[in-house]
Amino acid sequence: MKFICISTILSSTTWLASSSHIVSGSNSRLPMSLSSVINDLEAEGASKVTTFAFLTSRGITQSQRSQLLSSLFGISSDGDHDKEVVDGVTTAFGKKMGEEHDTDEEEEGDDDDEESRELAIPSVGIAIANPLPNAAVNEVAATVQACGGNIVFVASLQDLERGEGLFDKLAPAMERILNQNVEEQKGQGDDATSVMNKQEGRKTLVVVVEGATTQQDLLDAKAKLESAAASVLANIVQPDPNRRVTTLQLVFDSVEYVASSGPVDELLEDIGFACDPATAASNVAKSVYQDANTQTTVAGLHGSPLDLAAARKLLPLSRRVKEECLAVVRQNSSSSSGSNNSNEQQGEMVLVKDFGSLCDAAVKSSMEKFDQEAGSKLLEKSSVGKRIRMELVEEIYSDLETLYEEQLKLLHMAAFESFRASLSQLRISPNLATDMEKVAAQAVKLFSDTARTLRAKNFRSVVWPKADSHTSKLKRELKEYVSLRLQNARADGKFRPVPRKGVTMGLHWLLPKPFGNDYRLEPWEVHAKDDLIYVPKDKITDVRKEDVMTGDWRDSIVPCPTANEMMYLK
Predict the structure, then answer these.
(1) Its pTM surpasses 0.85
(2) How many angstroms separate the Cα of 214 from the Cα of each of 227, 268, 358?
(3) What percent of the chain is modeled with pLDDT above 70?
């Protein structure tokens, strides 16, 4: 596949001994879902792994994103695990690339030499993190950090033209990368080991311009994106205010611009840094640990007393408030919620129909407590304090989303049990199939209506996913259950459908010559040379030759003779 790129990538003539294929997909929460994908790639024989995060601008619709995910990474329906990758559901997937072999050497070598070369050339796997469209910015930033700062970013031409919607998720990711670079530079020296670590920390940004067809389109997109990036980098939090980063080339070690007309998986294999699976999994674990133990970095406080005080006071307070809020929601949604003993172990989670309102009320109460203990000075005058408060709300709603998913599963089970209970009250009649379909439709409607009350509504930055996938799954299960019950009833002889009624049909048509050949005058022979004789009902009156030649006799004689009133040649 030929790519239209700003920088030319040189590659040798190779052929693929084994085709690239999807290894596995994961629906778990990022960035931890990358760990399972990396383990699956290692189990498939990948000795090197390259990780990238897939991000898009605001103008890319859901259908375009799904199509681009399949086309850019070469996902088809032919592989055994290709169906595991579904945009909006799959958060990470792995693809094992085909092993490369030099064609000239292979023609000259024998079978033993070929096997030795295959063992010497490492097999590369690509792990792609696919954050959900409604993922929180801190989750996206942590995912980019777990991928080593490697990003595949799809930019819409409309967003590039307007200069808006480009950095909703990319700006927090760049902010995390810049602060991570400072932490890495602190531990680096001038020896060979530090140089090697710096090479391993190379960060790559691949910008896919959606809709670009020519080299000029890529050049225009490059100019517009870098112009918008300069404005964004001037406003984000950076480690050193005296030495601010102003261009994308200073954030990333490599920036590539490509068109969206072809796959980019081979390009990622060529330009991305491939490390061993253990190192890749270690980067994921490090990102998860940092994201769980701190919400904002203290590397960029620059000696500000107010910011330093806000970080020291509000970070522990935010963790405590978040734990208390989650504990309150779990307690009120568990089977032991009515117990007065606070030390009693919480029971299993039960269905709470107003779970969304419960979460909103718990978050509101927790944030009021946070504001009271933090004080207005730290929250109003400290930028770090404002950021900690904003990230705290996002963290709470992100963690509550896990409980929301459990509530949806409980609602699914409750709707199915309600459906089965309603079926037991039906009478076996010829209309049993219709009655069962009505009960199934009522169960689906009950599930959809109740699922709306489970979602939180007071916070828009972290939008919990709708229950559309669960609704579709419930419909399929109910349909299969109804079909199975009807088959069992037919086999037992208890159910006989209503017999089909016959249909009566009537046909009407016109005959051009209803009397057959008794008409000795064809329709086109009206103006015959001979005289026309008309025989009326009284069998007496005749039409004379003079009457035929003069007068409008056709109104009373021709062209509508019926029955025995016939017109013939004399």
Answers:
(1) no
(2) 20, 21, 53
(3) 71
